[in-house]
Task: structure prediction
Amino acid sequence: MQKIESDTLTDLQVNIIYQDRTQALLSDFAERKKIVFILITLAGMILIALTTIALGAYDLTPSDVYRVIWVHLSGQDISLLDKVHNTIVWEIRLPRIIVGILVGIGLATSGAVYQGAFRNPLVEPFILGVSAGASFGASLGILYPNLFFNIQVSAFIFALLSVVIAYSTSRVEGKNPIVTLILAGVVISSIFQALVSILKYISDDTALRAIVFWIMGGFYYANWKDAGLMTPFMLLSFALLWFLSWKLNILSMGDEEARSLGVNPDRLKLVVIAVATLMTAIAVSTVGIIAWVGLMMPHAARMILGPDHRFVLPASAMMGAIYLVICDTLARTLTTAEIPVSIITSLLGAPYLFYLLRTKGRFIFSS
Result:
C-alpha cells in the first residue's frame, strides 16, 4: 500500500514539474516573439524613413537621395552635389523625418507611461494640460514676439507650468490621488484654453492664422537645430523610462500591491510622470499639438504584445514613429498646399483604434 502511494506521489510530482517546465518554455517562446516583433518594427521604422525621403512635390530618385546622404556622412565635398537635391534632401526632408521620428517616440512613449501610471487606458499625454499650456505659451509668443525669446521656449515653459500647477493643486495630505490629479489637469486645461480663446479674439488676422496653424500641429519648420536639441532629451528620457518599465508593471497593479513589493508608488509616479511630461512638452513646443499618437499607439502595442511595459514601451515608440512619419508624408504630398499633420493623424487614428478594439481585443503574443 505504501509503495502504491509513493508511486502515485512520484507521478504527481513529475506531472507538476513537467507542467512548470512547459509553462516556462511557452513563456520564454512568447517573450522571444515579442522581441522579434520589436526588432521588425525597428527595421520597419528605418525602412519607412529611408523610403519617405524620396517622396514629395519634387521628384527624386532613390539614388539621388542616398547619394546626398552618403556624401554628407562620408565627409566628401558637398559642392559635387546638385544644389537643389542637396537642399531638398539634406536641409528639408531629412531633418523633418528625424524630428517626426523623435516626436512619435516621445508622444507614444509618454502615452504608454501615463496609461500605466494612471491605470486608465483612456489617458493620453495631454491629460494634465500640457497641450493647453503649450498653446497659450505659443499664442503669447506669436502675438507678443518682443516679450518672449522664442515661440518654442514660451510653449515649453507654459507646458511644464501647467503640469506643475495641476500636480501641486491635486496634492492632498502629501499624496496625489489619481482622480484628483486628472480633474486638476482638466481644470487647468480649461483655464488655458479660455486664455487662448481670449488671445485669438484680440489678435489680428495674421497672428490668428499663425496661432490656428500652430495648434493644428505640423513639421513645416523642422530643421537640424530642432533635431539636435530634441535627440538627447528624447533618447535619454526613453532610456530612463524603459529602465523603470518593470517598476511600471508593479505600479499598474495598484498602490497597495506596489508598497507590498517594496516600491514607493508616489515617488515612482512623480518620476515617470515628470519624465513623460518633459518628452511631451519638448514635442509639443517644437511641432504643435498632434492628436491621437499618444493614445492610439500604446493601445495597439498593448493589444499585440500584452501589458508588460518592458515590451510595450519600445513597441509604442517605434509604432508611434512609423505612424507619424507616414502621416507627415501624406500631409505634404496629398495636395499642393500642406495639410496640418494633426488632421491626418485624427482621420486615420480614430477608425484604426475602433478597428483594433473590435477585432483584436486580446493579446496576440501572450505568454
Remarks:
- The longest helix spans residues 2-52.
- Residues 23 and 106 are 35 Å apart (CA to CA).
